[in-house]
From TrEMBL:
Residues 1-21 are annotated as: Disordered. Residues 28-299 form the Dihydroorotate dehydrogenase catalytic domain. Keywords: Flavoprotein, FMN, Oxidoreductase, Pyrimidine biosynthesis. InterPro entries: Aldolase_TIM, DHO_dehydrogenase, Dihydroorotate_DH_1_2, Dihydroorotate_DH_cat, Dihydroorotate_DH_CS. PANTHER family: DIHYDROOROTATE DEHYDROGENASE (FUMARATE), DIHYDROOROTATE DEHYDROGENASE (QUINONE), MITOCHONDRIAL-RELATED. It comes from the Bacteria. SUPFAM superfamilies: FMN-linked oxidoreductases. This is Dihydroorotate dehydrogenase. Pathway: Pyrimidine metabolism; UMP biosynthesis via de novo pathway. Its cofactor is FMN.
Length: 321
């Protein structure tokens, strides 16, 4: 059996790993979209530009989730990224592009048949339902509700099942397209997931970033000025444990995993604990296109040498437990 290739060993240079997007592809169905791979690019700064989204799809992404669109993203603040040995802290919030600009872009993606999942959030359930309707009218075939961004609350978002239900219900009433609700692991996560599914979510994305803090030991200064979104390899075991536990406890709703994927092995691990698709984000902040292609190709090659389909892999750890 071929060992899964590690993105960390990817050669430098944008053209060092060539895309073979459809050679040995591993199709899955997510949010009503037939994707050629379970490897999906998650929402973030890298998915705020049309050019990047198109190149990521050309490079093999099964789908790309847009940066979260917000009708009133507020003034652009001092948005920063801080690299840590185990991942990254960021205090970013929403796209600064207008909804009109996004709708024009989403129309072009739809016309070209591109697998783009539109991430949306707003200040109230009714405002989010309006936005969901607008992006749906612009041709979006699948949405992700990015309702759990803790950065807006300075790390202190108190997400509750009631809040999740209110946003989910409002959107479900106004749009027929499939959508996933993105949540963060943590307190009452099973209740929040159940609230989303009972209110009409078609899938769950787990996890958004979780609150993290970095301090300068000499001066006592809190870096970035507070607790903000922590992502990257450090959160992977936590998210894996959560998805494994949820599946073992009988959760059946489709799950898109998100948290710390850096190579093809990580993709296989998330599928094994029961995720149907796997998002990658922070790892793409280094050598974006090479890293994506290496992970996507590494996973396809491994699956081809092993035989079987992605569906055979999904949940195999849970069946063994
Ligand atoms: C710089 C940065 C910006 C992000 N922006 C968004 C966003 O706009 N909407 C969203 O739903 N998630 C956002 N995320 C969260 C990622 O999509 C992802 O869920 C999270 O970082 C965990 O996955 P990872 O460890 O692979 O990055 C952002 C993450 C980072 C690091």
């Amino acid at each position: 059996m071929t060992a899964i290739k590690d993105a960390g060993s990817a050669p430098e240079g944008a053209d060092a790993v060539h895309a073979r997007p459809d050679a040995g592809s591993a199709p899955v169905e997510v949010l009503g979209l037939r994707l050629r791979s379970p490897v999906v690019v998650g929402s973030g700064l890298l998915t705020d530009q049309e050019r990047n989204i198109r190149r990521l799809i050309e490079g093999g992404a099964g789908a790309v989730v847009t940066k979260t669109i917000h009708p009133d993203p507020g003034p652009s603040g001092n948005e920063r990224l801080l690299r840590l040995p185990t991942g990254m802290l960021n205090n970013t919030t929403y796209s600064r592009r207008s909804v009109d600009d996004w709708c024009a872009m989403l129309r072009r993606f739809a016309d070209d048949g591109l697998p783009v999942i539109t991430s949306v959030h707003a200040d109230s359930p009714v405002q989010l339902a309006d936005l969901a309707e607008r992006v749906t009218d612009a041709g979006s075939g699948a949405l992700e509700l990015g309702i759990s961004c803790l950065n807006e609350e300075g790390g202190g978002l108190e997400d509750t099942p009631e809040r999740v239900a209110a946003y989910t219900e409002a959107v479900r009433r106004r749009t027929p397209v499939p959508f996933s609700v993105k949540l963060a692991i943590g307190e009452r996560v099973r209740e929040r997931i159940d609230a989303a599914t009972a209110s009409g979510a078609d899938a769950i994305t787990l996890s958004d970033t979780i609150a993290g803090l970095a301090v300068d030991a000499d001066t006592g200064e809190v870096r970035l000025g507070g607790a903000f979104g922590y992502s990257g390899p450090g959160i992977k075991p936590l998210v894996l444990a959560e998805i494994f536990g949820l599946r073992r406890d009988g959760l059946t709703v489709p799950v898109m995993a998100s948290g710390g994927v850096k190579d093809a092995v990580d993709v296989a691990e998330y599928l094994s604990v029961g995720a149907e698709a796997v998002q990658i984000y922070t790892a793409l902040h280094r050598n974006m296109h090479v890293t994506l292609r290496t992970i996507r190709q590494g996973f396809d090659d491994w699956l081809a040498s092993r035989g079987g389909t992605v569906a055979d892999l999904v949940g195999q750890s849970v069946k063994r437990a």
